[in-house]
Amino acid sequence: MTSPLKDLGVTNPVLAAPMAGGPTTPAMVVAAARAGSVGFLAAGYKSHAAVQSEIAAVRGARVPFGVNVFAPNPVPIALDDYRRYAEEVQRTADRFGIVVPAEPVDDDDSFDAKIELLLSDPVPLVSFTFGIPEADVIRGLRRAGSVVVQTVTSRAEAARAEAAGVDVLAVQASAAGGHSGTLTPDRPVEALDLADLVAQVTHGVGLPVIAAGGVSNTEGVTAALRAGAQAVAVGTALLLADESGASATHRAALRDPLRRETAVTRAFTGRPARGLRNRFIDEHRSAPLGYPAIHHLTSPLRKAAAAAGEADLVHLWAGTGYRDAREESTEQILGRLAG
Length: 339
Prior knowledge:
Layout: H1 4-7, E1 14-16, H2 26-34, E2 39-42, H3 48-59, E3 65-70, H4 79-93, H5 111-120, E4 125-129, H6 135-143, E5 147-152, H7 155-164, E6 168-172, E7 178-179, H8 194-204, E8 209-212, H9 218-226, E9 231-234, H10 248-255, E10 262-265, E11 273-276, H11 279-283, H12 293-308, H13 330-338
């Protein structure tokens, strides 16, 4: 089996996963390359111009890198469900003088514009999360010279990705922080240990695997590599890194000894995502499925709460290994985890 990562000169098998919404920065991606690794810019929630600017910043450092894109896989929401939830959220938003959208806002995160950018200004790696893009998109990126990576959460999803023509699989376990990359967000992801999931996928699909989800120490890295992964991607382990763009509120919550567990919720975005358990999660256990409508509904509130330091109203994305996060440089963290 060929190794696209080795072809890029990657010598450290612990990669910097993309974290949308701010934590991943160009500085983090460049620092990952200094560690012999590779990092992925997070294009999610950013405009075409913002993504272009970040690509230019990393390209200027002359290092290998990737860009992660949210592929459209919308979860429609019934109008009655949306309005019920909007009324719930509005009661909290009133404290900040925010008026939530009265009707669902749906978009595709400027998918076509981002693909056009990546075709006209190719990058070494392009990864997709949430959905599998059309085959012509995958073929176009590969013709442009990019290695195409697809996030999957099961062997069945891995088989679909292989059939679509991708080069590499990012196999994500349920312990991962942030959004699950599941292709079926209306169904729970099986709670498998990452090494077991990797073994399942590698025995059924003939593509290189990057393992992700809950890895926070060298033992986890070693287990995933022994199970058949060619590399391991970490995100939560980098949230406190010097180069992280995580908010001060998020950082403080990760260090707070009173926050003792994570939970999977759809309260913030309408898709299942894992974060530090807080009051918003507990009070909105009946939040409906509906991405990106719920994301747009709660986004102004979350931004205001983060600015005010109110961690109980913020999406504190974190995987199960969040206690191992350290305040070090990205280069030191990735080097330490590689052993």
